[in-house]
Amino acid sequence: MEELTLDSISSIRLYQRKRGYRFSLDAVLLADFVRLPASSKAVVDLGAGSGVIGLCVARKYTGVKIKLVELQKALFELCKKNISINELQNRVEAIRADINQIPKGKYLSLSSGTMDAVITNPPFRRPGTGKTSPYDERAVARHEIALSLDGLLEASSYLLKTRGRFFIIYHPHRLSELISKMVKQALEPKRMRFVHPRITGDASMVMIEAVKGSGVELKVERPLFVYKETGVYTDEVKRILYGG
Questions:
Q1: Which residue has the higher pLDDT, 9 or 38?
Q2: Domains identified in the chain and CATH numbers
Q3: Are strands 187-196 and 115-120 parallel, antiparallel or unpaired?
Q4: Rounded to whole angstroms, what are the CA distances from 31 to 27, 72, 111, 164, 167?
Q5: In terms of CB atoms within 10 Å, which of 4, 101, 127, 240 comes out highest?
């Protein structure tokens, strides 16, 4: 019998396995970064893992319906379990699907031009780089094994309505590649924020909001610092994680 932990993060509760993929701070920061227009109704979280981002966004925006798309069966089952314990069955749905197959029209519930927003915390390490986890879930979540950046962006553009929002957290060392490929898919960056572990350190992640079919204009927001020099979370990160 698999061992699960029940964790509380932001405004949700979440079952995770003790061994295997577990969400990181990046996911919670991205959920907080998301800004949806009041007219938004349909949102999809691509590569949802255990569902943390989509569930946080569902709590934050009570008027939207969210699809959690996850390929790995065990994580898909956790998505369903976590939807249930947060009592969000009326607005959140888990879908087991291969993101690469979405632009081919394979899934009726994931049709072209139907989404107001796409949110994703994708794998950013190329195969053969970094240390690959001995647990397949972690390897697929962190390395481009089952999904490439090109495949992700093609699926995202396919799903979005014109003027729909795209939200991603990614590693800065591939930022120029990311932006170049986003623009090729008509996903124009509009808002960007770098995440730094400490005020004296380089950025470790970058969060981007893009708009499909928009013109060229980009706002770079002030950096987000995770830790104070004393090693404790900054006030902003505490607010994101624990509320208040």
A1: 38
A2: 4-186 (3.40.50.150)
A3: unpaired
A4: 6, 21, 24, 17, 9
A5: 240
